[in-house]
Design goal:
GntR_C; Four Helix Bundle (Hemerythrin (Met), subunit A); Tscrpt_reg_HTH_GntR; Arc Repressor Mutant, subunit A; 9 helices; about 230 residues; three-stranded antiparallel β-sheet; DNA-binding; mainly alpha; 3 strands; 2 domains
Length: about 230
């Protein structure tokens, strides 16, 4: 039976909607690191009772995006050098696995998809739009992981990419020329398209290492020893 006019029914709960909006606000920096979340104010802004709000915030605590302080409340996490190391170390492992799958699959298809994200990065760089540039940067890495076809890699990457978006906000000011970010991603695509596994993996590793050194000077993924995470 053909039912072309029927659309999926959204069953997202009130807590789920609140969690999504808070997550987006953390990702974009609208709720900066260290911000305290007040229940009364947020319940009023969302026009909900405290029950679903508390449920939503606990979701974000479990995801590691909020931290709880006894007798003080909930705060947006601060990304210390140890956190930056941890995020990019985990991302490096996930994206390396995704790249290997991409190299052994339909390289052209994956490269074409990644080029769309890099094209958006180039436009954002030309328009001097750092927010759009960061979103396009994130889409590149989401597309690479999605191309792996692994639900588990995508699930593991979900929270990491939210934390990465927080890092990208800080990363924006470390480039003298934003075109550098476009070039880094373009070279990764070229190696992927050519099927050059060694170069593709090396460039991906260097890309992660560069971000860590910009965000946490003196920290290196290559040294194999993480700084302390508070």
């Amino acid at each position: 039976m053909s039912l072309p006019d029927i659309e999926p029914v959204s069953r997202e709960s009130t807590a789920g909607i609140i969690a999504r909006q808070l997550r987006d606000a953390i990702m974009t920096g609208a709720l900066p690191p260290g911000t305290q979340l007040g229940e009364t104010e947020l319940a009023s802004r969302f026009q909900v009772s405290r029950g679903p709000l508390r449920e939503a915030m606990q979701h974000l605590v479990s995801e590691g995006l909020l931290r709880s302080e006894r007798h003080r409340g909930l705060f947006v996490i601060d990304l210390e050098p140890g956190d930056v190391y941890d995020i990019y170390s985990a991302r490096s492992a996930i994206e390396r696995a995704a790249m290997l799958r991409a190299l052994r699959g339909d390289r052209k298809k994956v490269a074409d998809e990644l080029e769309q994200a890099v094209g958006a990065m180039a436009v954002a760089a030309g328009d001097d739009d750092p927010t759009a540039l960061s979103w396009a940067d994130l889409r590149f890495h989401e597309a690479l992981i999605a191309a792996s076809g692994s639900k588990r890699l995508m699930r593991m990457a979900r929270t990491l990419l939210i934390e990465t978006r927080m890092c990208l906000t800080a990363l924006q000011g470390t480039y003298q020329q934003v075109e550098e970010r476009v070039t880094e991603h373009t070279r990764i695509i070229e190696a992927l398209r050519a099927g050059d596994e060694e170069t593709a993996l090396s460039l991906l590793e260097a890309h992660m290492e560069d971000a860590v050194q910009r965000l946490a000077p003196g920290t290196s993924l290559r040294e194999g020893e993480a700084p302390a995470v508070p």
